[in-house]
Amino acid sequence: MTASATSTTKSARRPSTMIRRIAAGLVVALSTAALAAVVVVVIGLVLGYRPVVILTGSMGETAPPRSLIIAEPRQSDTVGVGDIVIMRRPDQPLITHRVIEVETNGDYRFAITQGDANEAPDAAPYPLRGEQLVARWIQPRVGHWMMTVFQPGPALAVVALATLVIAVQALRWIWARPTPKRATSRPATPKTAGVPTPNSADGRPTPNNTAGRPRRRKRAIALTAAPLATMFGLGVAWAFFTASDPVPGNAFGTAECFDARLGSVQNGETTHAITGTITVPITAVDPTKSFVMASIRSASTEPPDVTAAVRLSADGSAVEIDRITDAATPPPVVVSWSVVSYDCGVTVQRGSINGNDTASMTVPITAVDPTSSFATVTSRAGADRVDFGGDDLIRFGLGDGSSLSLDVDGTLQSTRLIEWQVVTFDDPADVEVQTIDVNLAAGVTSTTAALAAQVPLNNTFLVTSLQTSVGSNIGEKAIRTRLTDGSTVEVV
Known about the structure:
alpha+beta, three-stranded antiparallel beta sheet, disordered N terminus
């Protein structure tokens, strides 16, 4: 009877033992997979790889909505036609589009991009500089699952479940009853049927308090490793995705501007032979994104005859040139002008003002960053001026960017009309403005000044203003400035 009962108990335990072994194997497999996933995530972070989830359909079947893209970091000079780039801009959503053309402007490269499902290229080129994110692996629909799992609700639920499993397993490990030792081989002496083999002096089986513990500990470690790895992996991945740039959309509309983009440059040369204002028609531009620059040539020696205030008309359809003289037959002056217009990325403030009969004045403006802004000024003298003096040459600057300063060595007469512009690049990364002051001493015909940072000659221009009291002839006051190399300004 005893032998039969023992046999029945072992038979009943076999299925449960097999189930426990299968469960333990699954737990070990899941733990290994979770730890491997954590290792892969950490290695990807170290190497600069980033995940991007596509939310819109601009990439068509290549990357439909809710696709997951793993992007690799690459140097911008290796990005070419056919690559899918993740375009990053401050305070702008990430845009994932394909490069269809690469343009070069001096030392700078720009990518013309377009979504595979879009009918036209994107409105603005994307500057290729530094390190770029380029799509390496695209998997449709995975992004939807990841966005669901890594939401705060589901993520916290998984963490709570993992914590509960750990707690239950720990309690089972602490309070589990010892497992009796099972015979692993037949006894050396034969048994009499129906009589148990004694393991002790009184004939009762001797409990073994240590034989089952290693097995229980292995199961406990395996069952505990899985939720721990899950929690750790979830925490790393959650931090990984929440620390990445947000992707609220992948739409690239024509109204968006990611870089200052030059639209057009119109040039002309106009002869002004009257007193008053003449108007030169141009192809209309947006005055808030355009500015005019001008120079004047004349044979006269009187300030009213040879100075002019040049401005862009209020509607952007013309260049207006204003001068006033008391000559019966005003001598002609030749005005060379350029209208520079940007599609986006540039903001222009402008205005007209008369002098205040003092040596200096400030013009309030909307505050700008002086490192990404510059000013231009033209003016015309009143009809009563006879000789060129310190009153006729205006030195201007932006200072701390809160106002435009105007200074002369004399008086800014109220009869003087001043046209001013302040040009600001919306993204300071698109431009570098350096300001220097140079003193040319009496008797010195030339000098040089060093720039704080070297600049490319083919992408740089100078805006010069002058304040002086030397002499009464314009020839004594006129100067020429130029860049002799990328780090030196020459004044002659």
